[in-house]
Design brief:
The chain is mostly helical. The chain has 14 helices and three strands. Helix 5 runs parallel beside helix 7 and helix 12 runs antiparallel to helix 13. The N terminus and C terminus are likely disordered.
């Protein structure tokens, strides 16, 4: 029985790495490089604190390697499944994730003044990290069909997204709420929604963020300490001051890998939110610029995937994934360098944490899948249909 050559072959693509499009192989190489780079930076940033507090210099990096293996297993699952399957899972996964975020307000573990964690035996879940890829997917589903949806469906999903953002603000977690809102806003912008709607939505988001800062004392202190951290260098400004000292100590070429002094009990949370400061101290201005150039290359490649996408949904997913990975990285670097108020956003694929690592590799897998479905290999598409 002859098989039509028009039948989709996307399910076969991940099995033939040598037949992948060149840009997909390049994208895969960048994700692998990013992952290995993250392990090296974390190993340097974590050994002192792990040795001092846990008695094992390799404790943190060993746990991260385990999560990295799990994350890459998830990555392979993602790229081997058609994008339509992940798009179908987006709505139920988002609703479940929203329920888990709400659950953190009832029985969550409070860390640094925010209830973001659910502890289930040996497993610690951070729903606000795990839900990010599904925000991208459901945002693409919603805005790609926006003009064909009825008013009730539009209002329903906008209310769900608004509820999610408000729940995240309630934790309180202003940074993740802002990132979630930005992801949805940029997805709506890329889909071609009217500009006056977007301007009004942006105004509502800024108002919600302002109210959150005014209501939550610790967020207000972070903003004021960001404006002048040296006014209270031993109090609210301590974290940023130590980060700036680390970055400044790196100079042009850095102190050398593993030779940071600020990580020796001076710089707080040096393995997560402020890991860039350790990297900048060890690799200096040149290393920092190289990291930024890497992010630029990744962003341009992600944009190329989006521009070449065959459908509107694929295009919006690619834009959302690129924005999430690169945008969150830029925000993390901006916080560590004093360009933004201190937030709780990790550096994707670099900062310590299994939830962030799984979410980041899931997102990277979606982007690679978009690239795979954008260009079908010539050696497959050009072959005659078997009889």
């Amino acid at each position: 029985m002859p098989r039509s050559s028009s039948q989709p072959r996307q399910g076969l693509l991940p099995l033939h790495l040598n037949l992948w499009p060149a840009e997909t192989r390049l994208l895969l190489g960048l994700v692998i490089t990013w992952s290995l780079f993250g392990l090296l930076v974390l190993a340097s940033a974590s050994w002192w604190i792990s040795e001092r507090e846990l008695g094992d210099a390799f404790y943190t990096i060993k746990r991260q390697v385990i999560w990295m293996i799990a994350g890459w297993a998830l990555f392979l699952v993602v790229i081997r499944a058609p994008m339509r399957r992940w798009l179908r899972l987006a709505a139920p996964a988002l609703l479940i994730g929203t329920g888990l975020v709400a659950l953190t307000l009832v029985m969550g573990t409070t860390v640094n003044g925010a209830s973001r964690w659910l502890v289930m035996g040996p497993i610690q879940l951070q729903p606000t990290e795990l839900i990010k890829p599904f925000v991208v997917l459901q945002g693409a589903m919603l805005f790609s069909h926006w003009r064909r949806l009825g008013l009730e469906q539009r209002v329903l999903w906008l209310a769900i997204f608004a509820g999610l953002i408000l729940l995240i603000l309630k934790q309180p977690n202003l940074s993740t709420a802002a990132l979630t809102g930005l992801l949805l806003w940029l997805t709506a912008l890329a889909s071609g929604l009217p500009l006056h709607w977007l301007v009004g939505t942006a105004g509502l988001g800024l108002s919600a963020g302002t109210v959150s800062i005014l209501v939550n004392t610790y967020q207000r202190m972070r903003v004021t300490s960001f404006l002048d951290p040296w006014q209270d260098p031993q109090g609210h400004g301590y974290q940023l001051v130590q980060s700036l000292l680390a970055i400044g100590s790196g100079g042009i070429t850095g102190s050398g890998y593993g030779l940071s002094t600020q990580k020796l009990m001076y710089l707080p949370i040096q393995t997560t939110d402020f890991i860039f400061a350790v990297y900048a101290e060890e690799f200096g201005f040149i290393g920092s610029v190289m990291l930024l150039l890497f992010l630029v290359v990744f962003a341009l490649l992600g944009l190329r995937v989006a521009l070449r996408a065959r459908g509107n949904q694929l295009r919006l997913v690619a834009i959302g994934c690129t924005t999430l990975l690169v945008g969150q990285s830029i925000l993390n670097i901006a916080v560590a360098s004093g360009a933004m108020p201190t937030t709780g956003l990790p550096l994707p694929l670099v900062s310590y944490g299994g939830n962030s690592l799984l979410a980041s590799l899931f997102t990277a897998g979606l982007l690679v899948r978009c690239s795979l479905e954008t260009t079908e290999p010539l050696s497959l598409s050009s072959q005659p249909s078997p009889s």
